Structures are given as C-alpha cells and as structure tokens.
Amino acid sequence: MFKLPITTIALIIVCCGSFIGPMGMAAVNIAIPDLAQDLHASAKMVGWMPTLYLLSSVMFMLPCGKIADNYGRKRVYAFGLGLNAVASFMCAVASSIEWVLFWRFVQGAAGAMIFGVGVAILTSVTSNKKRGVALGISAACVYIGMSIAPAIGGWLTEIWGWRAVFYSQVPLVLCLLLAIKLFLHGEWKSEQKTRFDWWGTALFSLFAVCLVFGLSYLPDLIGILLLALSIFCLGLFIVHQSKSRRPLIRVQMFLESRVFSMSLSTSFLMYASNFSLAFLLSLYLQYIKGFSPAHAGQIILLQAVSMAIMAPLAGKFSDRIQPRLIATMGCVIVAFGFLILSQLSVDSSTAYISGSLLILGIGFGLFSTPNNNAIMGSVSKNELGVASSSMNLSRTIGNLFGMSMVNLMVHYYLGDQTFSVQNNQALMSTISLAFYMSLGFVIAATCISGLRGRA
C-alpha cells in the first residue's frame, strides 16, 4: 500500500492550517461593515475587532512556543485548531459586539498556537536543503487563504450575512483535526524539557496590554502613562529573561546571531506596514466607493494572489541565493507600492487600486519566505519552537503595532460615530495618514534588511 512520507504529510497538514487561519482573519474584514450595522457598533468598537485578535496572539505566542517545545508541537497545534473552531462558532452566535470582541480575543490565542507552532513542525521534519521550499509552500498557502478569503467573505456576507463567515470555519477545522488524528503520526519536541516561566509570561502579557490600550488612549494622560508602563514591563521582561534559568526565549539568541535579530526587526516593520491594509481598503471600497462586499473582496484579493505566486519562487531562490538579497528587493518593491497607494483619493479608479495591490503583493511575496528562511536557519534545532514563535511574534507584534496606530487614527477622526456617508471625509483622512505611516515603516525595514549580513 502506498504511504506518503512524514515530511509530505506534515507539509499538507501545516499548509491546510496556514490556509484556514488567514481565511478567518481576512474574510472577517470584509464582513465588518455588515456586522457593525447589524450590532449597532461604533467605529471605535469595530476598530477593536482586529486589534484584540492580535493582542491575544502576541500575549500567547511565546508561551505556546515554549509549551510546544516541552510537551509536543503537534499536540499544541491540534489544540489550537480546536479552540479556533469553538471561538468561531461563538462569534457566529453572538448577540452583541462585546461578545464578538471577547471571542475574537479567544480566537487570537488559538491563532498563536497554530501559527506559532506550524513552522516549527515543518522545520522539525524537513532537511536544511529543502527548508526554504517547504516554508515557501506554507507561505503560499497563507497567501492563497488570504486571496480566497475576501471573495468568499464577501459572497457569504451578501448571501447569508456576516455570521456565515464565522460558521464556515468550523467544518474546515474539524476535517483538519480528523486528518491529524489519522495520518500525522509521531511527535516533535525539545530533547531538554524546562520549567515554564510564569513571571516572564505575566510581564510580556502586561507589556502587550499596556501598549495597545496606551496607544488607543493617546494623547490623554492615561495613554501616556500606559505606554510608559508598557516600556517598563518590556525592560523588566528582557532583564528577567536574561537571568532566568528557564526563559521563554533566550535573549542571548539576539546577540549570538545578527541575522536572527535583524531579520526579526525587518519582519516587525514590514508586517506593521501591511496588516491594516485589508481593513482600511474594505472600509474605503464599501463606504467611500459604494462597492458591494463581494466586489470589494475581489479587488482586495489581488494582493494576496500575487503574494501566493511569488512566495514559493522566492523560497526556492533563498535556498541558493542569500535570503537577504531577495528579501531586501521585496522591501523596495513594497515601498514603491505604498508610495502609489499613499496618493489614493475619493476619485481613484479601480485600476489604480488594483495596480498598487499587485505591486505590494509581488514585493511582499519576495520578502516573506526568504526572511523566514533566514530566521529559522540561524538557530539550533532545540530552539526551533521558540524561533518559530519569535518569527510569528515579530509578525504579530508588527501587525498589532500597525493596527493600534490605525486604531488611534480612527479614534481621533471618527471616535464614537458610526460609519456613514456623512463621515467619509474623516475616513479618507484616516486612510491617507495610515498609508503614509506604512510607507515610513517599509523604508526603515529596507535599510535594516540590507544591513543584516550573510545567513
């Protein structure tokens, strides 16, 4: 009887998880206007939907990576999938925006388990010479999920309403859990089990919470105090990790490898620039341009389609060419895309928007996989779970920081008002400022990427 090698099975499982996760995030962005109208949610409350998901992911990313290294990466991965299904179902049956926000927070914790451990499983079963290809295929599945999600989210919202977007994830996750049970045999974990660092987890969680709420309350005094407390907690976390016998992450890893630390910094800035794009364009296309959810989703998917095409090619090249060179080229292309998009106006054509999204997708596809390959290739096998979580943490903190800044802009320009035609000018000001901010992030990332050194 023909039997697939464990490497292939693991790749299929992780790719399916990489496909399902982004579908939940990207599809929900398209459903936000319909959800806001149905639940009578203000602009400020709607802005917290992606932000709380990211906050939870940041809080749980490192702990999940450490638990996975100690107790089994497949076990944590499967538990995350199950929790994601439960949270999706509860979002679908929620009767108020407050309950949706609560279960989005839970869903973020599930996402930390899925994304924080999936790459570690792949790296555990794949040889060094084929790691870039495997990571490229996994990244392509993320982008394919992002490609399909806006369109599917738009169609589901138009036909059955926003709740269908959450319901649709449940059967997909259940099928994947069954596949893991039947086909993915074995477990992968560190040879050296260490005790869990509760103090480190508490300090890092407090840092993330204070950062998000501090940014949301600026320029009030409470916002400044919370940001100061956030910086203080981050400093304590770093000191604690450097002295702890059982750290969540060895801070020495950042000193031991310049490639590791600078690649993570580049990842932070690039994802800070990109995550809010789908959220902002969903509002722009539906409120300012008056497009239907399905039409808006079809336009937004162009970026993800081009990313899905480029990511596997870039991963294959990064096994032969220095990842730094390919990733830096991708950063330059993304900067050009945001330069075009920063000139967006009320009268911009669909072709103008589509062209800028294609450029962004090509650039980001060239950047992501080589950068991931550089990170995972710069650590020992005993720390693959932590490295995978660190890689996803840099991405998620970048997403969280960028979305928190956009949240601040939404609070400033719109506050407790609901989205409507009367507030289009304020919404347009928010979008323009956010794209200029993204351009600044990408320029800084390009400089750091070029200086990281050879892998």
Q: What report would you give on this structure?
A:
- The chain is an all-alpha fold and 455 residues long.
- Helix content is 82%, strand content 0%.
- The protein contains 17 helices and no strands.
- It comes from Paraglaciecola hydrolytica.
- It holds the Pfam family MFS_1.
Question: Helices, strands, pairings?
Answer:
Elements: H1 6-39, H2 43-71, H3 73-93, H4 97-125, H5 131-160, H6 163-167, H7 169-183, H8 198-217, H9 221-243, H10 252-256, H11 258-274, H12 276-288, H13 293-318, H14 323-341, H15 350-376, H16 384-413, H17 424-451
Instruction: Assign an overall shape.
Output: globular
Mean pLDDT: 81
Return the domain count.
2
Question: Uncertain spans, ≥5 residues at pLDDT below 50?
Answer: none
Give the CATH topology of the largest domain: Growth Hormone, Chain: A
Which bin fits the share of residues in helices? Answer: over 70%
Radius of gyration: 21 Å
Strand runs, count: 0
From the N-terminal CA to the C-terminal CA, the straight-line distance is: 41 Å
* Beta strand %: under 5%
How many helices? The count is 17
Mind telling me the CATH superfamily name of the largest domain? Answer: MFS general substrate transporter like domains
Derived from helix and strand composition plus strand pairing, the structural class reads mainly alpha
Please state the second-level CATH architecture of the largest domain.
Up-down Bundle
Largest sheet: none
- The succession of helices and strands, N to C, reads HHHHHHHHHHHHHHHHH
Can you tell me the CATH class of the largest domain? Mainly Alpha
